Amino acid sequence: MKTVLIATKNKGKAKEFESLFASKGYEVLTLLDIPNAPDVEETGSSFEENAVIKAEAIARQAGHFVVADDSGLIVDALDGRPGIFSARYAGEDKNDQANLEKVLEELRGVPEGERTARFYCSLALASPNQETITVAGSVEGLIINEPRGDSGFGYDPIFFVKDLGKTMAELSSQEKNKISHRAHALKELESLLDSFLERERLS
Ligand SMILES: O=c1[nH]c(=O)c2ncn([C@@H]3O[C@H](COP(=O)(O)OP(=O)(O)OP(=O)(O)O)[C@@H](O)[C@H]3O)c2[nH]1
Ligand SMILES: [Mg+2]
């Protein structure tokens, strides 16, 4: 089986990548499988910049091609926050529950029609031998008042997907993996992955 290394330490993302890539015949390894994997500082000012920083740093260290994901929640009524700071919105300890509560608190009193939001995911594919490729995907939703559902991770319980009439956390992992920002970005990457890997083989 072909193996792909994902430069993430986020368990929720790792699980989603495992099932997204399994359907394409790849086994997934993440930084959670690698003892003492470094923490790469996300110093960029966009999702794309941060995805490239993470992918290139780990590709250099591993001497191997890797995929990195930088993603987050963009809330229109909060001028795009938490955005690239989604993982640490309520503090450095990356507490999903506290992050979600901070968003709900900041949106208190904002009417339903103004609670539009999207999840955005940038994926970077990097190798020591080639130019880095980036792709992106997003999914539109509404931030509801109270968390609902317990699948997924992060802000999923407050992100309502109108077409499905459910929050992301009320979807099964298969359902989320059909419509999520990460799934859309990976679909974009799919068409580029084979030729990237072919160049990798020849380099
Ligand atoms: O409800 C959610 N459903 C999702 O599908 C999702 N995808 C991203 N996010 C949020 O955005 C942060 C990423 O920040 P991020 O890209 O820097 O990742 P991270 O720091 O958690 O791990 P790493 O990949 O950098 O190691 C995450 O922690 C979450 O708060 C999501 N929330
Ligand atoms: Mg991060």
UniProtKB/TrEMBL annotation:
CDD domains: HAM1
Keyword Hydrolase tagged: yes
GO terms, biological process: nucleotide metabolic process; purine nucleoside triphosphate catabolic process
Keyword Cytoplasm listed: no
Record note on cofactor: Binds 1 Mg(2+) ion per subunit.
Enzyme Commission number(s): 3.6.1.66
Cofactor(s) in the UniProt record: Mg(2+)
Function noted in UniProt: Pyrophosphatase that catalyzes the hydrolysis of nucleoside triphosphates to their monophosphate derivatives, with a high preference for the non-canonical purine nucleotides XTP (xanthosine triphosphate), dITP (deoxyinosine triphosphate) and ITP. Seems to function as a house-cleaning enzyme that removes non-canonical purine nucleotides from the nucleotide pool, thus preventing their incorporation into DNA/RNA and avoiding chromosomal lesions.
Quaternary structure and partners: Homodimer.
HAMAP family attached to this UniProt entry: Non_canon_purine_NTPase
Record-given protein name: dITP/XTP pyrophosphatase
